[in-house]
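Researcher: Next entry in the queue.
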Amino acid sequence: MDWFHPTERDKPERPQDSLASSHEIQSAFVERCDDLNWIALIITGDHALADQAVTNVTDLSTSYSSVFRNWLMGWANTVTVRAAVSEVRDLISASASRYIDSSCEHSDNDVLSDDQIASLRHVDTRDIVAALDPLARAALVLRGIQHFSIADSALLLDMPRRIVAAAYCRAVRWNGERAGAHGAPNEEGAASRL
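Model: Structure for this entry, 194 residues:
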């Protein structure tokens, strides 16, 4: 029955140079802190809750000893999104009623381009929070920025797909109107923050 319990020598070799060390994992959170906080702030709409979400996932990162480097950045974003959603889950659920009778005119539910995301980084977060309800903000981050599918976004948010799709359409419509009205980001390229 040796074949049933593989020994160390039978395990396939992992390319060690593609793994991130514990220090690299923690550094990724430090280096990406502004981006992660921005993502969490759009979802939560509150500095303290966004900081708490980022703190929670930064603490979580210390328990991981090796992950693939090219996976690390995506993982950091995903766990930050999940932590931010959990901080405001009740607010997200409460805003779902706005979309019960809504329909989505964007049948393909396109994600935001890199240029659109960069442009959105230049918007004062207070303007995003004022313009979009918690569900639309969460859908904007999940589908538009993080490129989750509508189905995966709905699963994470514990909402029907059509509700999440309608909220995402609302966010995309707002972003399109905003970009059309304001043109390119400011010349300094500095993103405004709350």
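Model: The two ends are 62 Å apart (CA to CA).
Researcher: Noted, moving on.
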